[in-house]
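Catalogue entry: protein

Sequence with per-residue tokens
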Amino acid sequence: MQIDESLIRSVVAQVLAEVGSAPAATSGFTGRRGIFECAHEAVSAAREAFERLSERTVADRKQVIDIIRKIAMDQKVELGTMEMNETQIGRLAHKIEKLETLGKMTPGVEFLESKVYSGDHGLAVIEHAPFGVIGCITPVTHSLPTITGNAINMIAGGNTLVVNPHPSGKRVAVEGVRRYNEAIFRALGIDNLICVIAEPTLETADVIFHHRDVAMICVTGGPAVAKAALNSGKRAVVAGPGNPPVVVDETADLDRAARCIIQGASYDNNLLCIAEKEVFVVNSVFDDLMKAMERAGAVRLNSNEIDRLTKVAISEVEMNGKKKMVAHKDFIGKDAAVLAKAAGKSINPNVELIFGETDEHNPFVPVEQMMPFVPFVRCHDVEEAIDKAKYYEHGFRHTAIIHSNNVRNMTRMGRAMDTTLFVKNGPCMASLGLGGEGYISFSIATPTGEGVTTPLTFTRERRCSLIDDLCILGHPGKR
């Protein structure tokens, strides 16, 4: 199913036309279904929706997010296909799977647990209150999935949100938001809990960052958008860049390590910020691991093929007066077969990952490449492997992975890396509850320290104290 540019125009026209036929008792923004061309209007509508949501119960919030979950899961094929057709990056099966996974596993109102302190001097209750309107920037790599996960988290906490999506993922963002709001309005009579800018620009993002009615910012993106959010003067939750390294030591189960590396690095063609980007392997098992990778279905490139791929897939650009190596946009999120062809090799289109041996100075090692080619670097021992992993993670403190059966090696790497996510003997996504324990979010706040976001991330602590009463245990203190 192809989505042309006329879709977004027709959807915007449809919802704008509905405003004129809205019942007299409703607000001026009811009927818009969250779709706005003006960022100021979007924020005003979200603020109005927040006021209405504030009058409702937590059970009503649960009903809202259950609606979002159901649409994400029931309409995953159609919406995932829309996203694939629009962005032209990643893998269709994984676009579909991401919507289902976020619909099922994103934390909801069950995370809103109150704390109570009871003692001689009465009772104190700590509850979690919403911030209000949250401004969001979402990436092209996971446009509607990020909106879906954020909406569930934020609305569970009692907030509303205004989204400035990546321009290359705006159509599916608009359509997904329209469907969510339509169903929510039919069920609860509240519109615009999720607002989206139909034609997102840097200017609309700037309005959201600095609007007086936006209480908080949540962004997912690279260093530039992260810096802008932190300079907004508001509370900011920033999901920044990553370059997750993998270490494989001499005690690892090599076949298991190979399967895990392929699973994580190939998922959605390596678009995940947590995905395995480079592998540092102890020399004594290096050749055996390379064979294990081939047994598990990955295709190895030779040195000449790697050189050819590097020349076209990594570009040098000038940023802030300095030259920097970055992934070439024509290869980001493309299939392994596309990369292999650029390297001069013909492979089966079903191959999910290509790999090869490089030294640590190959640009694929330091660059967050977001494509299904993984460089493998020989290291003398595990100490050297961990040191190189720390260096090429760049201090993002995002994600790191080790394959080992030596607890001391795991411990040393965990302490050295100090990353938000640290995975032992599994693929990267196991850290988000996919094959491991825990919960999922596509907003993983590393620079600002919140980690994998939950509804509590988007709430304020409020303490209510009653002095000298309602403590019914023991004897009262002197009054």
